[in-house]
């Protein structure tokens, strides 16, 4: 099942300079610390530079300056991490997708499933849904009505697309993700909640990735939208009518409330929250567990929260936080006093 | 599949005043910004008032004061959002529930399934569980032993009710939700964790809604309880033996730890946390990502956290937070000095 | 289905001192407040001591000092909670696991399933995966290729093990959990995200428990590892290449980013976050919703955040937080002034 490539083959294929034995055989990839004689490793983060001397790796991809004095086989790359990512894909051998619909899948007669798509066991596909060529729907996935699964999409397992979810091409969705559930729309009416019908859908652009157990609600009236190449980690919550710009990435457990708009090339840290009806412009970085409470109009890095402290010290600071306004007023008053 | 109603029909049915053409035909709903000639829109939030002049909507529901000078067709409502919610339900056409048990469902012989319930494919129903008339169990749902699914409930897809989960009437549960899993009960015993058996259940009142991938653990001894009309968004965690009062609503990613009690008509913001063994009284609002660490005995709005700042400024404030107690002590000492 | 034990039987079996009627019949367990004449209750937390006088419990396990003057039947234990946990397991009667593969399960021909394992309906088991004796795979679980499910494991329902997930013995996994999904590995390459293949696996030690909808990604190159007896509550996110030491426990909604290492006997509070590439030493407690942003090298309790306040007061403190550095500089300047 494993692939083998010579060092010169890798250099040629990825247009990298090779220093060392062109015929050296590479059969897999590993970390610098653990790689063996026929494995490829990489050095990108300077803090791992001290592992280079002792590495057992048969080939290391790194920057030219890091390769000075290295006696082993080296591939020289401007961005060794990206180069490694591309090369390691050669060694990620997956079973070929076998087209066809499993005998224990249920497909509505009005659905259109490409003969080149693969539908696994215990999959349910609803009315008027379309699954294009090369799509792979893994075991236990449930796809409701009026959905589109574009060419080359992969729904790994136990994914739910509720209704009106339209995926572009090559969208990868990890297990337990739920797209197209009702948005959280409620109106209080005579002391009881009234449910606001959620009549929109979800549109996901080409090359998006959706993490395990992430949820993306469908829109109330318009659609919830992810533009192309958006990358969502696990356990993320995207409210109804959110729009996320192309090439933005969100780390695990972050959340965006309804009708917020996130720009392109944004990076949202783990556990961060973005309130509803806000606009966040392009190229904004929000650090982990920060809360965005108003629109952000300038690119840059934003944060909230307090630093970690030992609990005893923290209790003292926390108690003083409550007194901050009084302390500041006293200070202001003193500053106005004659000295 | 779509419904059509005249403006006068809508006015009569929802007891609203119509200004404009009674025969005007409405075929759907949309936002003020996007609605077309045969769509109904609404104006509730004053910040969208400027969209009114240019709207293409064939009919707009709004307050009387907003309708002054509006030349299009208008329905007048005291609460336009609630009125719109009710009217838009007319246009949320869903396929009728087809009663019966799918050939690829597995029902324990001791379970009681109403002939008027609908059990989808790949559903498993355990011993002594009862499913009442009009209930709809979607594909991939797993219901364990000793559960009750009340009349008119809907479990959309891939929902798990582990055991001893009793749902009232018209409970709506979105995909991936898990009710009745073991509470997190552990005792440390000679350096190893000892699991505390979780012998209680989960009781969910009428008209509750449970979001996608939300989890509600069953009680250790007594039950975990949601009273009627509780509304939970996605990715919420409810610990064992929690009780949530009627008509309370919680936004996405919020969490309540074991044995806490939440009152009626509470609103818990997204990502907020409530520690265990606390009591929160009725009509409490907790803002997003706040942490409740002691009981709340007065209705009102509560918060914790710090405001979002650019990262450079935030680092300075965060560093000073660690010094807060020392700063306050110095200030106090100075205040005692002779001036 | 229920068990019955005499008071003396319980005393003998768990090596506890009995004060009271040895023949008293116990048929179940309950809280001190609700227990009836034939139920066992416990008193561990001093704040429930006032419930002792009025309890209807037929037998109470508690410390010797709490039993002074109690007129009912008592079992004396140094750790009443642990003793109760062990005794209540007697009353947690579960249906016996019936070995065999359900007719509506799909098992790859190259998988090895022990004849003493139980495989439920709508379960899919992939190539080269091994399921050992006494393992129980509940309805809707999906197990991919190259996995191991050790002896006595239980996957309750709708659990996904994607690939290369190796579980030790007696691992309990609650519904909706996803182990072995791709880690969140991305490299930016000419303005687009490049996916970094995730070639490692997940290794879970004996006696671990994984909560509902928790996600544990597989490693990029090496494995993600949970040592033995790690206990994870619901909705937890564990990034790729994380290592969690034996006997550590994490409460609901907490998260650990990629390549962080957590020591043994750590307690991570609900909603807490730990950034990537950090080391947390043994016996560290992190309080709820705190964020760990650098390595912790000393055992102890750590916190971040601010206390809950009424929203009006909080707004004032929050506004002052932004001015903290300026306030501190002014104070420093004043302290240098001649008095």
Automatic annotation (TrEMBL), chains A, B, C:
It is an enzyme of class 2 (transferase). InterPro entries: Hexapep, LpxD, Trimer_LpxA-like_sf, UDP_GlcNAc_AcTrfase_non-rep. Keywords: Acyltransferase, Lipid A biosynthesis, Lipid biosynthesis, Lipid metabolism, Repeat, Transferase. Its EC number is 2.3.1.191. Residues 25-90 form the UDP-3-O-[3-hydroxymyristoyl] glucosamine N-acyltransferase non-repeat region domain. The active site is at 240 (proton acceptor). GO terms for molecular function: UDP-3-O-[(3R)-3-hydroxyacyl]-glucosamine N-acyltransferase activity. It catalyses: a UDP-3-O-[(3R)-3-hydroxyacyl]-alpha-D-glucosamine + a (3R)-hydroxyacyl-[ACP] = a UDP-2-N,3-O-bis[(3R)-3-hydroxyacyl]-alpha-D-glucosamine + holo-[ACP] + H(+). Pathway: Bacterial outer membrane biogenesis; LPS lipid A biosynthesis. Catalyzes the N-acylation of UDP-3-O-acylglucosamine using 3-hydroxyacyl-ACP as the acyl donor. Is involved in the biosynthesis of lipid A, a phosphorylated glycolipid that anchors the lipopolysaccharide to the outer membrane of the cell. HAMAP family: LpxD. NCBIfam families: lipid_A_lpxD, PRK00892.1. Homotrimer. Belongs to the transferase hexapeptide repeat family. LpxD subfamily. This is UDP-3-O-acylglucosamine N-acyltransferase. It comes from Lysobacter brunescens. The gene is lpxD.
